[in-house]
Amino acid sequence: MEDTKSIAVPTLKYKVDYSEKLGRYLQATTDLQPGEVIFREEPIIVGPIISNKNLEHSRYHTPDECELFKTNKDQLQLALSCLTGTLLILRIWLLKKRDPKLWERVKSMEAHLDKRRDTEVWEHREIHIVAMLKSLDLVPGDDPSVSEVLQLMCGIVDVNSLELRPPGPKEGLYLRGLFMEASLLSHNCRGNLYLTTDNNFKLTVHASVPIKKGDTICFNYSTPLLGALARRQHLKMTKYFECDCSVCSDRYEMESYISSILCPRCKKGYMGIEDPLTKFPYKTKWICNKCEHRMGGCLIKTTLDLCKSLIEKVDNQDAKELEILRRKLLNTLHRNHYLILLVKQKLLTIYRLEATKSYPKKRFMENMLDVCKEMYELLEIIEPGISRFKAIILYEWHLPIVWLTNRAHSREQISTMELIPRLEDGASILKKSLTILLLESPDTPEGKLARKGLQKLKTLNTLIADAKALSKFENLTIHGRRKLHKI
Ligand SMILES: C[S@@+](CC[C@H](N)C(=O)[O-])C[C@H]1O[C@@H](n2cnc3c(N)ncnc32)[C@H](O)[C@@H]1O
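# S-adenosylmethionine complex -> structure
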């Protein structure tokens, strides 16, 4: 007899749709809350993308691959490092033979073969992958259709695969994975998703902001800290489309001013490309958002080249030099300009290290606070909602807040009553960071940071509770204050 008990089948929170512009894409079929899991999925294939000696990685090293390597052992020993870069494609090649049905599905992924044919990238893959696999006898060398299939596989990987971080300390191993559903996610420079993977590369797709039923679900294929020009160029070169999202089509990139230079005329406003979607940004006019002064793109390019050359010359280990450069660049660029962001990131590397010392320099901690605050405010515009980058910046931001507050209190520069709200500020920033970091798998760097952060939050809460108890005795002795900060 048939089992009449109903089994709850989870309904999908998205459907596949099609548009002329995006091709296939995923659309929300229900309202989604930030943090909500939209779907999880196992990768079809995982492999390294650049040369590395570590071939033995993960269960994606299948028995047929093993057999093939054993057969060609001597020849492969010689070409080990070249081989690694071809491994992902070889794995798809083997999958084609092993699981033709799955290959049919993979084959349906967008590869943009027409746009790649006879370009530099085609030539590169021909030499480094197709010819390499043929010369090592890992694929038939005499069949011309093999080259075409391998090029198709290269296109599929380049357009659809996601970057993965190897679990544990496998430095220098750059992995990419192909996922069936995630390959249908479209791009937006201000996406609405947050992607995490666990140790087995299982992918979880979360909503990063509230998503309405009918919205396209999408993420940023590129990186948020590039200006629109670099981002659009990267998308054009690697994903073969011209991005016209709300950030790219706005002159001032939604008031983030990430590509804007200070108006040389009024010195108050910032210049943005008059026609942001132009193909020739340095041949068109840029316009000031305050006085509407127009300036030729080539002049902007010269200015940027000059700024770039200053950044190239600076000593990355020298905080003072970097701080001077940051101030100098502010005379020309908006504080959120991607070139200033480069300098800020270099500075953060130094400050981060300083923050781990028992007696960090006050100036460094003050600057760290400033840089983190500015970066956070920018990320709120360009990567709203849940963002990995934001979580890290929030974490780093709370460090100088707590350190400077404790220092000021122990030196009697602030009262215990003043200490409490400042520490609470630090705790609330840390909590914000943790709500994001705790979405990460425990073994990832962010997952580990979350564990450390939880410990710090506990200590901070104890400190706040003690400060509250002690605030009744406002005339706390210096000894009492020091004791408080030893917690
Ligand atoms: C990972 S695939 C996404 C699935 C693809 N649309 C399909 O039908 O298989 C990436 C490709 O989708 C298209 N695409 C994604 N986002 C886009 C966007 N914002 N504007 C135009 N095309 C986009 C581009 O062709 C891009 O190379």
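# post-check
Residues 51-57 have pLDDT under 50 and may be disordered.
Residues 166 and 422 are 38 Å apart (CA to CA).
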